Amino acid sequence: MIYVNGDSHSAGAEIINGYCFAADDRRYIAWGSRAHPEAIPHTYGYKIAQALNQPFFLEAESASSNARILRTSREFVDETKDKSKLFVIIGWTTAEREEWEYLDGYMQITSSGTDSVPESMAEEYKEWVINQTYEEVKRKQKIWREKITEFSNYLNSVNVNHLFFRSQEFIEHSYEQGYTTVSPGSLHFGIDAHTAWYKYLLPKVQAQYQIKTGL
Questions:
Q1: For 67-80, what is each residue's pLDDT tens digit?
Q2: What is the pTM assigned to this prediction?
């Protein structure tokens, strides 16, 4: 199985009619912040799974924090009984984002200053955004480098092959290949960029996955 987690660049944000979240489309309100189901077949991760003829599961979400990515990825790996054919691909996001607990769930918090938060948390969020200074972000980057390395070591310990990259690498690769975002002012790329990224990543996945599974 190919398992992919990450932020909007792994979720295929705006590939379909500018939707970042499934719930942006009235037909999929119950899907919440998950990736739009019609965008999934166009994402780089799905294309990799198809090329390897493997099952696919996408847990990436737009506006995701590294904390959510790590938490859900660890849960998925731990709940997978047969890890022998599992391959984890993660596009890590920017370090300043956080995951805040709220009621019986979580909220993803970005430094945009435009996140929708409960009124009771509005002042806390405003102050948090102000505190995301260059020095603070650098501090968080160091922390996340360590956490990501720890998670990689954990995956190695349970014999799960994996491929990590920064979402910024996907962005840079897309621009270098001459692709533009889906619309002026957008940060997201379309099907052509996802196809190019799939072709870039596939040999790296094959190098590990085919040796392990005998495909």
A1: 999 999 999 999 99
A2: 0.94
